[in-house]
Design goal:
The chain has two helices and no strands. It is mainly α and 67 residues long. Helix 1 packs antiparallel against helix 2. The longest helix is centred in the last third of the chain and has 27 residues. It starts with a helix and ends in a 9-residue tail after the last helix.
């Protein structure tokens, strides 16, 4: 599940971050987009942590036995 969930979270995080930044630029009177951009950044960081965790858990080491 983590192999497809991490990239999906990354895409959602990037889109949310970009949408929040556009909102901040278009609506300078209110600070509503800052929260959206912050949550997008948080989702992006969680996606990176999930991807690293999945990679560490699923990595198999085939050690060559020493003679």
């Amino acid at each position: 599940m983590g192999r497809w969930l991490a990239p999906l979270m990354g895409v959602v995080g990037l889109l949310t971050l970009v949408a929040g930044m556009v909102w901040v630029e278009l609506d300078k009177g209110s600070m509503g987009g800052v929260g959206v951009a912050g949550s997008g950044l948080a989702v992006l960081v969680l996606a990176v942590v999930l991807a690293v965790g999945v990679e560490l858990v699923t990595r198999h080491r085939h050690a060559v036995p020493r003679r």
